[in-house]
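Problem statement: downstream parser choked on a complex file, so we are re-checking the raw output for the arginine run. The parser issue turned out to be on our end (a line-ending mismatch), but while we're here, posting the original submission so the record is complete.
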Amino acid sequence: MTEKKTWSDRFESALHPAIARFNASIGFDIELIEYDIAGSIAHAQMLAHTGIISASEGEQLVEGLQQVLQEYQRGEFQPTVDAEDVHFAVERRLTEITGDVGKKLHTARSRNDQVGTDTRLYLRDRIGKIKTQLREFQRVLIDLAEQNIETLIPGYTHLQRAQPLSLAHHLLAYVEMSQRDWERLTDVAKRVNISPLGSGALAGTTFPIDRHYSAKLLGFERVYNNSLDGVSDRDFAIEFACSASLIMVHLSRLAEEVILWSSEEFRFVTLKDSCATGSSIMPQKKNPDVPELVRGKTGRVFGHLQGLLVLMKGLPLAYNKDLQDDKEALFDTVKTVQACLEAMTILMAEGLEFRPSRLQEAVESDFSNATDVADYLAAKGVPFREAYNLVGKVVKTSLGAGKLLKDLSLDEWKALHEAFEADIYEAISPRQVVAARNSYGGTGFEQVQQALDMARSRLNSDT
Ligand code: ARG
């Protein structure tokens, strides 16, 4: 049996040690300590401000709490499982430091509104960090795009060669995805930044507290309007896990492309030694472990989203201990997204090299200019569907003859349709095929340059 617990004298005996371990969250919610202390400082200041405790008591509490944080940071304060959770641990240590006044900290508060406050402060902070990382990721992709406006790469649909692209256009697609990720986090942050503090255990409190005062001290934008909702809402964590899942979808898709590109079958990129690993048995191998891990870790983030949704679905109002189990999912989501963003940013910044000659060879050796032949005829007045059918036939006969479209003689073109002139060769060259797609948002070089400028100017804005 462990020592007698923090709660009331209603309890005669201590918890069974295994149950104490099972019940405790200190092993993981210690992650919240700096936010727990910040929340407690604001609460103590509010108690003094409203006269619920004296100004001097308020000051002693604030100083004591600051000392607890310093002790923790210096490694001198290391709470163990008998503290149960971070909230009890801090309060207990505070009371050791300040004596009886420490016992006043929990006036007009419950661990239920406290843990909700801590979790929001933590997540608000981490969202800010992830947003900064997303900007860095974008910057790296934009730099890479800038160097590769004129580099061509095959574009695919169904993983079949479709139409050639500017490599910059391809990279900027990921900048757009991460822009939505950035905007989504900005939006989620609005609902993270609401104070539940002062909701009490579930029903509010008998003390004349000022919830707006503590909320303001903590930088919250507003307070929960309903105390039951305040202590039991975890929508913000789910919304975050959903946004995190989408970030992972995007990183994983890019990871998958890098894996394909680095294969012997594609050979579009070479992985640099700083970001690739070898095999313990096959000496010739260079493996794309970084993008593979990113793709793999995506699964656990999706799992956390699912876990949080299921955690919440059957909970009657208000607080239930099930809610303690949101933390590991949330912390792991944050850590995984941060680690994957960092790794992918390094990989794209310095871990791979595109192979221009191989890319050029790829875009020249296929029929991805077939649409342009149809467009050529359509521009000369041939109805598009008719032109499309004709080009289908040309592709078929060329394939049979082992030729590409560029290998057909002008006589052969003219035999197919009298509208063909010598300018057909220019019209179907990969460079022209790309340049011609100058519609807004297309891969034409002018469009890509504009998209790049826009993406770069967005980097320094807060929208
Ligand atoms: N460790 C708990 C959690 O994370 C704190 C709140 C406990 N509240 C309670 N009524 N037992 O949810």
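For whoever reads this later: The first strand starts at residue 152 and ends at 157.
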